[in-house]
Structures are given as C-alpha cells and as structure tokens.
C-alpha cells in the first residue's frame, strides 16, 4: 500500500515523473493498482469537497440566522440531526432567538404601558434626544402648546413656539443642569410650571425631558383671592372711616348740639349695619368654602316662606310694598332649611331694597316631574342685559351709588349662587330696566345628604 501511495505521490511530482512513467510502462501488474488508487483518491477528494461545501453552507446558514436575530427578525428555528457536528450550536442559536423574542415581547408590552400611562398623565411631557429632536410627547403637551407635538424626529426649535420654554430647553442642553420656571404659553394663554430635566442614559448618551404642570386655575384662584382681600379691605374701610370720622367729630364738641348728635348717631348706626351685613356675607362665603355637611329635611314651602316674610314686615310697610304669595298649599320639598332660608332672605331683601315705593312682589313655587322651583318677581329698577351675567360675581354692583345708598355689599347674590350650587340647584335671572326682575332657583326633588 505504501508503494501505491509512493507511486501516486511520485506521479504528481516533477522530480519523479519520468521514473514513475517508466515503472508504470514497464510493470503491467502495478498499473491497475495505481489506477485504482487514483480513482479512490478522486472519490475521497470529491467526498471531502462535498462535505466542505455542506459545512460551508451550514456555517452560512448559522451566520445568517444570527444576523436575523440581531436585526430582530423572527425566522424559523434551525433543525439539524443530533449527529450533526453543528447540532449543539444550532440549538444554542435557537435558544438565543427564543430568549430575544421573549425579551422583545416584554419590552413592547412595557413600552405600550408606558406610552398609555403618559397619555393619561395630566402634565405635559416632551422627551428630546441628544440631537435636540423630539423622541416622544403626550396629549397633554399638545393641549398645553395648542398644537400637535407628537412629531417624532423633528427638531424641537421648529415645534416649541414659546420663547421662555425654548430658552429653558436650550440652557439644559448647554449646561446639563435641570431648569425650572413658571411661564405662560403664548398660543393657549396657559400658565404652566415648567421643569426641564437632564436625563443621562449612558456615558455618551442623554435625554432632555420637559414637564409642564398646568397652574392656570391656581393662578386664577390666587388672583381672585388677592382681589377678594383688596375688595374686602376697601368695603370695610368705607363704613369704618365714616364711623370713626363722625365719632371723632362728636368727641370734639359736636355732641353738645342735640340735633347734630342725633343726626350723626343715625349715620353711625346705618354704617354699623352695613359693616355687620358685610361681615355676615363674608362669614357666609367662608362657611360655603369649608364644604359643610348638608342637613336635608322635608318642609312645607308655603309655610316656610310665610314665616320668613314676617321678618320683613317693617321694611314692606315702610315702602308700602305688596307681596303676592302664589305657592300652593301642601307644597312639601326636601332641602337644607338653613341654606334655603339664606337664599330666600337675600332674594326677598333685594326685591324690597331695589323696588319702588308702592311696588309689588310675586313669590311663586311649584313641584314638577323631576324638580321644583321658586321664583321671586318684583317691580323694581331692573337690571341691564349686559350686566345680568355679572351680578353673581363677588363685590359686583350694578349701580355703585344706588347700591351704597341702599346698603349693598356686592356679596349677596354671589353668596346666593354658592348656596344654590351647594344644593345641586341653579339660579337664573330675567330682568328689564324700569320694569323689574325675576330670580328663579331650581332644585332636584331629591338632594343627597352629602359633602358639597
């Protein structure tokens, strides 16, 4: 066999070519053996070539499979025979693919939950990548900015059109420090508390997140509180100044004149009544704002109003005003007695205070299918149409001189509206200047005894 191999090797070598040829030609017994060896070598070479190509194809297949897994694609699993030398490697790649698919599904689920959570947030969220491009934004941000902000891949400078916010974002990119400021959005006229946060992701990557809290209502409440304090101070100052001035004049000698003393004391008394009324209205507003518990009881509406009218008898007789009570007998309603009494007292008082001498007042009420109502109509001065919506504002007066002359504080109707809303009702006014006004309050048949 060694001779055959030596012969085959010698056959292909240049040095021994002629010697091998001589042997082959000279020895006829060796020739078949050499030819057979050559044939066998050819077969072995062919088999090795086929195996090499098969292994190369399998390696390409395994490599392509790994590339697909890296790209996030989901090709089918590789199926090899257990005897295949690449069987274990194929199993490992299949396992990596399964694990990658599970991780991807978990990531997608978490991402959807994250995006859903962002959409339900009441604060505006805008996330920018380190290239200053929009990565994501929620609906609240679009509402605050007055335009669609979920434009992924766009430069923020082209979408954020409020200078103060753009300046905060730019400063965060430059300094890598968080920024905070109260700003006003030009497009929507919203006041927001803006936080721009630097978020490092890795040593080379970072995000910038803008968080906008809508504080428009808080600012409005703050403004109303300041206005309220200013108005209260002004309203308190007027009667206090008058009382102080007249008492000082009396102490300086005017009290020796009986006529002057009586006149000044009457003025002081009237101013003290205004002061008392103002304090009572302010306390009423404070009680409403503290959200008291409702005390719902059933009462006879006609009898209840009849008792209230007796307390106004001196004022009615002084201006000779006639009251027409048109509420049917046996009209029973469920309501908070104290709050309803305050509403009726104020409306009746206004119908007397702003009525003419020899005027009239009609008080009507009725239970309907789903609610009940109470209306008070008078023949008074009336209210201009453009002022009818404002009369329920705190400290608003239709005619300042007339209101001051009649002792109005500008709080009465605002208190009435607060009490009506506390009872789940609504109040409406219809009026014509020189003819009179009609105030109507409507309440549901059943009012739950609950916190306001």
Task: Please sum up the structure shown.
The chain is of the alpha+beta class and 452 residues long. Helices cover 53% and strands 18% of the residues.
Question: CATH H level of the largest domain: which superfamily?
Answer: Histidine kinase-like ATPase, C-terminal domain
Q: Which class best fits the helix and strand makeup?
A: alpha+beta
Largest sheet: 5 strands, antiparallel
SSE string, helices as H and strands as E: HHHHEEHHHEEEHHEHHEEHEEHHEE
The percent range for strand residues is 15-25%
- The CATH topology of the largest domain corresponds to Heat Shock Protein 90
Helices and strands in order:
Layout: H1 2-12, H2 17-26, H3 30-71, H4 87-120, E1 124-128, E2 134-137, H5 139-145, H6 156-159, H7 163-175, E3 179-185, E4 190-200, E5 206-214, H8 216-251, H9 258-289, E6 296-300, H10 301-310, H11 313-318, E7 322-325, E8 332-336, H12 337-353, E9 360-367, E10 371-378, H13 400-405, H14 412-422, E11 426-432, E12 436-444
Parallel strand pairs: 7-9
Antiparallel strand pairs: 1-2, 1-5, 3-4, 4-5, 6-8, 9-10, 10-12, 11-12
Helix pairs in contact: 1-2, 1-3, 3-4, 8-9, 9-14, 10-12, 12-14
Please characterize this protein's 3D structure.
By secondary structure, the chain is an alpha+beta fold. The chain has four domains: 99 residues, no CATH class; 94 residues, 2-Layer Sandwich (Beta-Lactamase); 74 residues, Helix Hairpins; 160 residues, Heat Shock Protein 90 (2-Layer Sandwich). Helix content is 53%, strand content 18%. It has a five-stranded antiparallel β-sheet with strand order 2-1-5-4-3, sandwiched between helices. A five-stranded mixed β-sheet has the order 7-9-10-12-11, with helices on one face. A hairpin with a 3-residue loop joins strand 11 and strand 12. Its EC number is 2.7.13.3. It is found in: Cell membrane.
